[in-house]
Write a structure and sequence with these properties.
Length: 65
């Protein structure tokens, strides 16, 4: 079986069911990162990109690829 757009849509739709504590997890992770003065983050196939979005909102000086 290969991954399809339909699979992605279902994963996104049920994301909170699959990871009910993800808001806490993302906030915790962002909280332990020292405020950067710049830099790059590389995201490799990480779902909807929620963590990247959170990092960009919290640290607008970074670039996400």
């Amino acid at each position: 079986m290969s991954w399809t757009e339909s699979n992605s849509a279902e994963f996104i739709e049920h994301g909170l069911d699959f990871g009910p504590d993800r808001e806490t997890q993302m906030e915790t992770l962002c909280g332990v990162i020292a405020p950067p003065t710049g830099g790059h983050v590389v995201e490799l196939c990480c779902g909807e990109g929620l963590l990247s979005t959170r990092l960009l909102n919290r640290f607008p000086v970074i670039t996400v690829h």
